[in-house]
User: Which sequence fits this backbone?
């Protein structure tokens, strides 16, 4: 097998690595813009309205990143000395630099995650603190969907929502990849969003926009969130250039997520057939069990053969399909992985 020298990399590290398409660049190029801090950017306003409407929520706020969107949501839902209940491996707990605690005096209450990526609702009930000065005030239940590529079942969302409401908790969804869940379930966005007070959606993951997330919720919540956006770094001015990419993605890159899911499944099947241990993916993310493999050798092999993969985990390699991964790329990646086992007589 020849090494990959001149041809381009197949980048399976994340769905954030996509290049804006020509059509998306064109939409950005021709976008009507204004000063969004003055509320005068028509394209930003349209993006916020379009997504809010699709999610059945009142209003939206455009932010530079999913991390800032979640942080602003936490700062708006919770005050100093409040807490939010969250999964141990959730992005809003583990992967956002402890922002809510660092900047908001907000305490997370992390809980172990179930096999399907949710929180056990009995655990949630037990974690809700009584109204007593010994405890932080439990304000918010925070879920994630999709979570490490898994889709939370709709009936689970309904049950979680019921528990939260029974105890007077607000409900936030980190829906960075919510459209992957929508496509995997074949449902409407509202089938998921109806169970939450606020939802954060990334445009720069599978949707393929270069930048941007939108936080959705009630009008008064979004007005408060706008203040927190200012505090956490300010507003963006002619941000319609970026919002135009998001609008383009919503029109052209949602349905096609089904292709990413099909390719992820195909890759998983090819790797399983080759002898790898891989769980069949529900969406565009698959994990190859690398606990029994010579990890360093495999990482070097992939690199040498033009495959970029996230080999940082101790026990698995994460592979993600996206807009810039074709059927031929899947074929090639499967071949490189297969050849590795053959070469190393594993
Ligand atoms: C990527 C991601 C985020 C954060 O988005 P950034 O734009 O990278 O800050 C939040 N939550 C989940 C589940 C994500 O995958």
Assistant:
């Amino acid at each position: 097998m020849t090494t990959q020298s001149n041809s381009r990399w197949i980048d399976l590290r994340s769905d954030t690595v996509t290049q804006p398409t020509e059509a998306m660049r064109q939409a950005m190029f021709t976008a009507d813009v204004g000063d969004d801090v003055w509320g005068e950017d028509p394209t930003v306003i349209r993006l916020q309205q379009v997504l809010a409407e699709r999610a059945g929520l009142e209003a939206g706020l455009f932010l530079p990143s999913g991390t800032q969107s979640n942080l602003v949501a936490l700062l708006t839902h919770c005050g100093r000395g409040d807490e939010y209940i969250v999964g141990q491996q959730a992005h809003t707990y583990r992967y956002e630099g402890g922002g809510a605690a660092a900047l908001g005096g907000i305490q997370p209450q992390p809980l172990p995650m179930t096999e399907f990526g949710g929180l056990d609702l009995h655990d949630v009930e037990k974690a809700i603190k009584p109204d007593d000065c010994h405890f932080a005030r439990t304000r918010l239940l925070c879920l994630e969907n999709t979570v490490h590529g898994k889709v939370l079942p709709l009936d689970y969302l309904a049950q979680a929502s019921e528990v939260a409401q029974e105890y007077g908790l607000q409900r936030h969804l980190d829906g960075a990849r919510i459209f992957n869940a929508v496509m995997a379930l074949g449902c409407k966005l509202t089938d998921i969003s109806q169970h939450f007070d606020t939802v954060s959606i990334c445009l720069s993951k599978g949707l393929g926009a270069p930048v941007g997330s939108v936080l959705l919720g009630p009008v008064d919540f979004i007005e408060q969130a706008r203040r927190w956006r200012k505090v956490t770094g300010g507003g963006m001015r002619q941000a319609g250039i970026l919002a135009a990419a998001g609008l383009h993605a919503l029109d052209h890159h949602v349905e096609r997520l089904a292709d990413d899911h099909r390719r992820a499944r195909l890759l998983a099947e090819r790797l399983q057939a080759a002898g790898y241990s891989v769980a069949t993916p529900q969406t565009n993310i698959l994990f190859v069990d690398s606990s029994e493999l010579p990890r360093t050798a495999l990482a070097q092999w992939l690199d040498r053969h033009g495959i970029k993969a996230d080999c940082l985990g101790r026990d698995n390699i994460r592979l993600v399909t996206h807009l810039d991964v074709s059927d031929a790329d899947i074929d090639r990646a499967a071949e490189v992985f297969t050849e590795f086992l053959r070469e190393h007589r594993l």
Remarks:
- Residues 10-17+256-343 form a domain with the Aspartate Aminotransferase, domain 1 fold (CATH 3.90.1150.10).
- The chain is about 45% helix and 15% strand.
